[in-house]
Amino acid sequence: MDDCNWKIDRWNEIREKTIPFLHQCGYTDDDITWVPISGLSGENFKTKTDKSPWYDGPSFLDVLDQLPIPPRDETKPLRIPILDKMTDRGVIVFGKVEQGIVELGTKLTIAPSLKTAQVLSIFNSKEELVRYAKPGENVKLRLGGLQDESEVRKGDVICPRDDTLPITEIFIAEIKVL
């Protein structure tokens, strides 16, 4: 909105040209919330601005605050994005259990590299050794079966390993579900 001085004609033009692209990506009109903001000055980002009398909606942060928090489901397959890693008598990864349950001895796959590992120990956010962790909990996992920490990267995702299917078939099946 910086270059057009908050003019409604330019606002409508941007929306009309962007909507077909968003629809092709699978979004519906109910999925989209339009909020004019200034990238240079940050107007209408945190607090409403008076430069757009034609816009009567909330600021950008207010829209984010109103979004529903998706439920964390412990019955779904395990997902732990790796936030950090280190070596200390083995490979240790840090993350948050987003869904599923991780237990001692759980056999894992690290995506997308498809490296396999096993949980040797689980520490909660208080550095206490625990037997399992549920969705929403921050964990530190000591993993066995990896040579060194270079086999995992920040951003990799810990998933369950199913010994009955080749690992590539598991991910192909999961992608189809998504």
Describe the structure.
This protein is α+β, with helices and mostly antiparallel strands. It folds into two domains: 8-66, Rossmann fold; 80-177, Translation factors (Elongation Factor Tu (Ef-tu), domain 3). It is 20% helix and 25% strand. It has three helices and nine strands. It has helices at 8-24, 60-66, 167-177, and strands at residues 80-87, 91-96, 102-103, 107-111, 115-123, 129-130, 132-133, 138-144, 157-160. Strands 1-2-8-5-4-9 form a six-stranded antiparallel β-barrel. It has a two-stranded antiparallel sheet with strand order 3-7. Strand 5 (115-123) and strand 6 form a beta hairpin. Residues 164-178 have low confidence and may be disordered.
